[in-house]
Every structure is written in structure tokens, then in C-alpha cells.
Specification:
Chain B: It comes from Secundilactobacillus silagei JCM 19001. The structure holds two protein chains of two kinds. Chain A is of the alpha/beta class. Chain A contains seven helices and nine strands. Chain A folds into two domains: about 140 residues, 3-Layer(aba) Sandwich (Rossmann fold); about 70 residues, no CATH class. Chain B is mainly α. Helices cover about 85% and strands about 0% of the residues of chain B. The N and C termini of chain B lie far apart (about 45 Å). Classes of the chains: A alpha/beta, B mainly alpha.
Chain lengths: ~230, ~260
């Protein structure tokens, strides 16, 4: 049986003025591609912040297995502060993730890893292009490459495809799916886009105000989405 | 020109200032802190005036004031709207205090002009040594935390996600900035520090694709500005800060034109 890497047990979270997560239970298995769907304000981002330990649960537990250190997390948010004048090349941007005290420049081994990940994410040929001048899809790939640099075991795509055109969305998710299948990388894909969630996910977690539903992706039918949204 | 000890001191100090400003400037630009740098220079003015009032070296007063305020600003946290307003208030208070201390110290107007607009002849060998110690300290800390600083400055969201201690980093950076402002004020004066701490790096941004390259170009722009400025000031007897300002502004506008042509 596949091992678990993240277990949510009786997870509750409330902001001072609003209850967001209500007795959420989920067992995330290694190598799973979990699509988390739901409308705005149902707690998708809150759940990600809990996983990233940026927030603490009101009650219940959220455990990484066997422990937090054994599950490095890569996170790809929708937005970054990258404007047209952003001065770093794609390569330099990806290398930022090798942050540690000491040597200011990257070692030969670290540079090799940057090149390896640039090749894997199909960015190697444009590695010297300033990130500010890259297309939306290329930028998202660079964010993905940076997140993958130190070999996470769990990758979170938080609405990462929301601002992309359909072709760029497919390209990015094909790439992630390939890494998910080849390297057993566990993926959490947060999205509004139900067809996309269905196309790439293995399982789903549907959040709606006050309750949730989880299951195999084939069970995420249009009828169920409609019923959950109207509940 | 270099046979005069005061010019030797000015060139040594100027070189240190240019290097530190070029390096720190890159992070000032990346962290959008030009406004704060300007305020720190005004706080530096109040500190220098306080130093004179207390009978200290103006640089020591400056270090005291800028360091305390940089930690205070760091504590204000990330809420930028509140920070901007607080900085404006602190800035107004600093200028007021500076004027008060100068008046209480009963110093003459040329002293005030020196603090505000900088001076070539006011730098002693002892000043140069003190500036060297400060500059080396800044450099060592920047080298040690370089990768963290680079990540947090150029990709704050990524750094936060990675779990870097961004709040502490921000305070460390502000203290380094306080040191740099105090050192740079010795030549260009507290009113014009932000020229060296912002313009060379802002111009370098358009010529570089890596942080290392951006730092090299910013240091080069700032060195040319300071060296040429000192020379022109010596020849014409006009204020050095005027020449440095003009040269750096020229670099900046040339960079904008270069960017426009390339686009």
C-alpha cells in the first residue's frame, strides 16, 4: 500500500470573523496528484497556508509523515513580483532557491543542478533571457523550476495556471504530470478550473462553505460540482 | 592633485563609499527602499547635528541615529502603507531635530553646509580609517548573508515560501543601510546620499541579467561618479556633490535611453 505523506485529522480553522475549515480529514498518499477545487473564499488558500505552516489550525492536526523535515515542500503561487524590468535571467532566478549562509556564488554542483532542472522544465535554451521579458507560461515554468530545485517531495501549485492561456496551461501541467509520474512527486493542484482538475488529477478534494467532499477524480461529475456549489 | 593629503583622504574615502553604495544600492533598488534611504539620510543629518551638539564626531552621531531608526523601521513591519506615512513623520521630525541641535550647538553655518551637502576637505585620516572599518564590516556581513539577501530582495514571495527569516533579514539589511548612509554622507552630504545609493544601481539594472553583474556595473558607475566628481571639484572648486549628482543622473538617463533603443 502506498505510504501517506500528509494526514489531516479533524482539522478546523477559523478567522476571528469566519469559520473556514470544518472537521477536514484527508490522507494524502505519496505520488498522488490531488486537485483541490472550490469557489473563492471556501478556504483553499487557507488550507495551503496551513500546510506551509504559515497558519496554525484552530484544532485538529496536520502531520507530515514520517516527519516535516522528510517532506520538503515546493510551492508555486499564482503571482510573483516580476515586472517587465525585472533584471534577473531565468537561470539566476531559479538559482535563488539555493539560499544558505556562506559562499556568495553557486558551487559547480549547484550550477549543475540548476542546469538539470532547467533542462527538465524545458527552459535550458532560454535560460539567459531576463525573466521580466519571458511569456506568462515561461515565467510559470521558471517558478516551477525554482520550486523543484531542492527536490521537494510535495509540490503545491496554488492557482498557478489561473492567468495562463489554454496552451500554456496544458504545457505546464503536462510537465508537472510527467514529473509526478516519473519521480513519484506528490502534487497538490489548487484550481477553479474543474475540467483541468479532472484532466490531470488522480483524486479531488472539493471544498465548499462548511463542508467538503473527496474521492477519485472520476467521481467529480458536473452534477456533483453543481450540487456542491448550491449546497 | 594627489600630493595633497586632503585629496588622498578624499579619494580613499570616496572609493570606499562608491563600492559600498554600489553594492547596497542594488538591494535598495530591489527592495524598493529608495524613499526610506532618503529618510535615513535626513535622520543622519539630525544624528550628525546631535553629534556636534554633544561634542562628538558627526559620524558617530549619525551612526547612532540611523542605526536606532533602521531597527525601529524594521519593527514597523511589512505594512507598506503604514510604513510610508510613519517614514514621512520620522523624516519631518529628523529635520526639525537636526536644525534644533545645530542651533543649540551654536555652530557656524559652514558646519551645517558640510553635513548637508558634503565636503572634500573635511575628511581626516582618522575618518578614513573609521570609514574603512565600517565599510569592511558591511561588506563581510553582505558576503555572509548574500544568498539570503539576494533571494529575499529579488523574490520576496519565494523567500517567504522557503521559510527564510525574512523579518530578521530586513532588520539586518536596514542596519547595514544605516552604516552605509553614515559612511556615504561624509563626502556627498546627507541630502545627496540617496544619489549614490539609488541611481548607480537603478541604471545598472538595465545592463545586467544577474545580481553579480548588476553589482559590478553599479559599483563601476558609482566609482566613475565619485572619482570624476572629486577631480572636477578640485579643478573648478565647485561642490563635489554637484558633480557626482550630474554624473549619476547622466548614467541613469543613458540607461533609460539604452533600454528604449533595445526594446
Amino acid at each position: 500500500m502506498t505510504e501517506s505523506i500528509l494526514q489531516l485529522k479533524h482539522l478546523f480553522f477559523a478567522f476571528p470573523d469566519k469559520q473556514v475549515l470544518n472537521d477536514l480529514n484527508y490522507d494524502l498518499k505519496r505520488g498522488d496528484f490531488l486537485s483541490i477545487v472550490g469557489e473563492n473564499g471556501v478556504g483553499k488558500t487557507t488550507l495551503m497556508r496551513l500546510i506551509l505552516q504559515d497558519l496554525k489550525p484552530s484544532s485538529g492536526t496536520l502531520d507530515f509523515l514520517p516527519n516535516r523535515q522528510a517532506v520538503p515542500v515546493g510551492y508555486v503561487p499564482q503571482f510573483r513580483n516580476v515586472d517587465a524590468e525585472y533584471p534577473l535571467s531565468i537561470q539566476d532566478f531559479v538559482g535563488l532557491n539555493f539560499a544558505k549562509i556562506g559562499l556568495p556564488w553557486l558551487t559547480a554542483k549547484e550550477r549543475r543542478r540548476v542546469n538539470e532542472i532547467l533542462t527538465e522544465t524545458k527552459l535550458f535554451d532560454i535560460r539567459r533571457r531576463p525573466l521580466g521579458q519571458a511569456s506568462g507560461g515561461e515565467k510559470q515554468k521558471a517558478y516551477l523550476a525554482q520550486a523543484l530545485l531542492d527536490r521537494p517531495r510535495l509540490l503545491i501549485l496554488d492557482e498557478s495556471t489561473a492567468s495562463l492561456d489554454p496552451i500554456a496551461k496544458t504545457e505546464l501541467l503536462d510537465l508537472v504530470k510527467q514529473i509526478n509520474e516519473n519521480q513519484q512527486l506528490t502534487v497538490i493542484f489548487v484550481t477553479h478550473d474543474i475540467p483541468l482538475a479532472r484532466r490531470y488529477g488522480d483524486h479531488y478534494l472539493f471544498l465548499s462553505p462548511g463542508h467538503y467532499e473527496a474521492g477519485n477524480i472520476s467521481e467529480l461529475t458536473n452534477e456533483k460540482v453543481g450540487a456542491m456549489n448550491n449546497a | 592633485m594627489l600630493s595633497y593629503p586632503f585629496m588622498q583622504n578624499a579619494y580613499m574615502a570616496g572609493t570606499l563609499i562608491a563600492i559600498i553604495s554600489g553594492i547596497m544600492g542594488v538591494f535598495v533598488i530591489a527592495r524598493n527602499m529608495s524613499f526610506l534611504t532618503h529618510t535615513l539620510s535626513e535622520i543622519g543629518f539630525a544624528g550628525a547635528a546631535f553629534g556636534i551638539f554633544m561634542g562628538w564626531q558627526p559620524l558617530n552621531g549619525m551612526l547612532l541615529f540611523t542605526t536606532i531608526s533602521s531597527i525601529g523601521v524594521g519593527e514597523l513591519g511589512a505594512k507598506s502603507s503604514r510604513r510610508e506615512n510613519s517614514i514621512t513623520a520620522i523624516s519631518a521630525l529628523a529635520i526639525g531635530l537636526g536644525i534644533l541641535f545645530l542651533s543649540l550647538a551654536d555652530s557656524n553655518a559652514s558646519y551645517a553646509t558640510g553635513i548637508l551637502f558634503g565636503s572634500v576637505i573635511g575628511i581626516s585620516r582618522a575618518n578614513v580609517v573609521q570609514m574603512m572599518i565600517l565599510s569592511i564590516s558591511v561588506l563581510v556581513v553582505v558576503v555572509v548573508i548574500y544568498r539570503y539577501l539576494k533571494f529575499d530582495s529579488f523574490d520576496p514571495i519565494g523567500a517567504q515560501v522557503k521559510g527564510l527569516w525574512t523579518r530578521t533579514l530586513s532588520v539586518i539589511f536596514l542596519v547595514l543601510l544605516a552604516f552605509s548612509v553614515s559612511v556615504a554622507a561624509q563626502i556627498v552630504g546627507s541630502l545627496l546620499i540617496f544619489i549614490l545609493l539609488t541611481l548607480p544601481a537603478a541604471a545598472a539594472k538595465y545592463f545586467a541579467h544577474t545580481v553579480g553583474m548588476m553589482i559590478s556595473v553599479a559599483v563601476a558607475f558609482s566609482l566613475v561618479g565619485v572619482w570624476l566628481g572629486l577631480y572636477l571639484s578640485y579643478v573648478t572648486n565647485w561642490p563635489v556633490s554637484f558633480f557626482i549628482a550630474v554624473i549619476e543622473v547622466l548614467f541613469y538617463f543613458s540607461a533609460l535611453v539604452y533600454q528604449r533603443i533595445r526594446a
